[in-house]
Design a protein that fits this description.
By secondary structure, the chain is mainly α. It contains 11 helices and no strands. It has helices at residues 3-21, 32-62, 75-88, 110-122, 124-131, 134-144, 151-165, 176-182, 186-196, 201-214, 223-235. Helix 2 packs antiparallel against helix 3, helix 4 (110-122) crosses helix 6 and helix 7 (151-165) packs across helix 8 (176-182). It is elongated and about 70 Å long.
Length: 236
């Protein structure tokens, strides 16, 4: 395939993602009404996924014995499964599952992975109520924690690290240390330094810890290391 054809395919895939999920950017809007509209669209999409999954499960039980090779030759069952997968491509978090192997920096779904993480960081209660999936959060944070992102993505990841550092700990937040190390630089360190001098005790501790680890890339981000660092800080 030529570079031109490859680029055309990527553009087509990007347009397809936008057509299915462009509305989801409303989930991180400042306007509550815009977020409410996006949440309503998400509920509709999730309902279609649930319906498709229910239909697939019904057919699965009708095509016994479970797991037999003959079962997977049933065209009706296979079509029901395809409809379930297709419904998931227009919903969150389902659209972010089963990412194809390859460079995430060129994945057309990357903007929506970042959206999902930003939604959790900015509006954690809405995210928890409508799309909580800690495994997806963890896998996405780990996946985006690579060097070489473009300027816009790097800026978004820097924003995410700052948001997470300044809030109370939530499940899987420790994975963001990987992102901090991947986008380490003057901008991130300046924000962390500001947070480390803020009035919020959690932000001070968390930002100080991340800065300490950035200076020690060989040190793992483990519970033991965190507790040891806290003890040392308390001892002054």
């Amino acid at each position: 395939m030529t570079k031109e054809a490859d680029a055309g395919t990527g553009a087509d895939e990007t347009r397809a993602w936008d057509a299915r999920l462009g509305w989801a950017f409303g989930l991180i809007a400042d306007d509550p009404a815009e977020r409410a509209a996006a949440l309503a669209q998400l509920a509709d999409a999730q309902g279609k996924v649930e319906d498709a999954l229910g239909r697939y499960n019904d057919l699965w039980h009708l095509t016994l014995p479970p797991g037999g090779q003959e079962q997977w030759r049933d065209s009706v069952l296979l079509r029901a499964y395809e409809r379930y997968v297709e419904a998931g491509t227009s919903s969150l978090p389902e659209a972010l599952w089963n990412r194809p192997a390859g460079d995430i920096r060129t994945w057309p779904g990357l903007p929506y992975a970042l959206l999902f993480l930003e939604w959790e960081a900015r509006y954690p209660q809405e995210w928890t109520r409508h799309a909580k999936h800690w495994g997806t959060k963890q896998s996405l944070v780990r996946a985006v924690a690579v060097a070489g992102h473009g300027e816009r993505v790097r800026a978004k990841l820097t924003d995410l690290v700052e948001l997470v550092v300044r809030r109370a700990y939530r499940c899987k937040d420790r994975e963001y240390l990987r992102v901090a190390r991947a986008v380490d630089g003057a901008d991130l360190r300046g924000r962390l330094d500001t947070a480390a001098r803020s009035d919020d005790p959690w932000a001070r501790r968390h930002a100080g810890y991340v800065l300490w680890l950035l200076d020690r890339p060989e040190v793992p981000n483990s519970l033991h290391v965190w507790q040891t660092w806290l003890s040392a800080e308390a001892d002054g």
